[in-house]
Amino acid sequence: MSLRPVLQSDKFIVTSEVGPPKGTNMGHVLEEAKLLNPLVDGINVTDIQAAAMRIGSMATCHLIKDLSAEPVLQMVCRDRNRLALQSDLLSAWVLGVENVLCLTGDHPTLGDHKGAKAVYDLDSVQLLQVAKGLNEGHDMMGNDLDGKPDFCLGAVVTPGANPVEMQIMKLEKKVEAGAEFIQTQAVYDVGAFADFMQQVGHIRAPILAGIVLLKSAGMARYMNKNVAGVTVPDDLIKEMAQAGEADKAAKAEGKKADNQVKTSIDIAARLIRDLKPLCRGVHLMPLGWGHHVPAVLKAAGL
Amino acid sequence: MTISEPKSLEEILGTLEGQEKVFLVGCTDCATVVQVGGEEQLKAMAQELSQRGKTITGTLVAEPGCHLLNLRRQFRERRQEIEAADAMLILSCGTGAQTAAIATEKPVHVGTNTLFLGCVERFGQFREFCSACGTCTLEQTGYICSVTRCSKGLQNGPCGGTTAEGKCEVNPETDCGWLLIYNKLKEQGGLDSLKAYRPPKEAMAHPGQRTLSREGGEA
Description:
With about 300 residues, chain A is an alpha/beta fold. Chain A is built from eleven helices and eight strands. Chain A is about 40% helix and about 15% strand. Chain A is globular, with a radius of gyration of 19 Å. The two termini of chain B are about 20 Å apart. The chains are: A alpha/beta (about 300), B alpha/beta (about 220). The interface of A and B includes residues 104 and 122 of A.
């Protein structure tokens, strides 16, 4: 069963993300998926995230499917030409993957193999169009397929981009090309997100707001400086900084230093509660803090 | 214009190992403007190599180095100096070096790295605009090339990597190509042209070495 039934329901949708390991030890990522499975509608598996070489999304999705969970294969345009993109989509389908999130992909120069050839033979809109074609039973050249997939296709958008109109124009094309759900870049400013949602009222695909767990004030400042389209407001940074100070003091006294974790969970839960009336769901990106996702969802009342 | 930069002297000396007599070839066109293989650079290279024990049998600023017929004629005119050399060192571009390798039987070495096709913004400043993709769609994007100016060559709009300063997250020195396109079309009242789906480019896959025969064209 794909994400499609839940997208078509009235349910507030929750998805979360896991990152495959650099190496063959699948223990941790599968434990995380097991923990998330009863709490979420889908588990995204990143595709060589941040262009840092690691095990593939397809194999990880297949193993997650074996846990009776609902994996969402992330597929980026960075590493494969149009032959490999289509072939890998068909391969993923026969391995049980029914949801695909189509993305551009971080440039190789941002990763750990900076000299890698960047492919981008198709862009994310074209990839969606091609995947929709596979669903219809033909490849991008119009050749018939012997057996076809039925992917539930997703796309991404950066609500905090400036000018956002440029993002919205592309989002319209993504939905037109076949995206059935939208997951966003991290959202911290509820007011700004409400403005964005007003501008995309005509988009018929459900939009899931991105939630990235803040681990520290330093991480928030780093994102503000280095992650395009993401802005953590000063009051949240202040909250995390105070928690960091409290942790430092607790450590000095030999006490348990869990203030930052607690504050992070509290902020994420608050965001989810505030975003709930604005959109159809949330997409959590815990970046290694997957074990805290149950507490976040509990605190958010989900 | 073909934009090249000089290889290091160490690398050049490495390729010339065991070849003591050298004939230097530059080019009157791009390599002169880019200052890698003009009269002055050949003179400087001749001096550097001489100081390191090499004998320069002659220098030629080819007119231009990428014109096979012209180059063959110029090589014939300089036959004695070329015959006296153990090898040629080409200080123009990759095309110039390969054209020379066809025009002579002497061993050829290249003294530059060829980087891109570019425009001369001002003296000594060059910028890339065209990737020679073979399917020009500049008409749709306000005469700002989405293949070249977007770091990922995206055809349907920006990724999420446009920074607050309007730069590309891949390189803070580089403007986001799609932001330039957006601003230009907005200014011209042509944003509608961005709403249309742009299909994948076909001619990105060149079947082997590209050639062009134009009827009635000059050889």
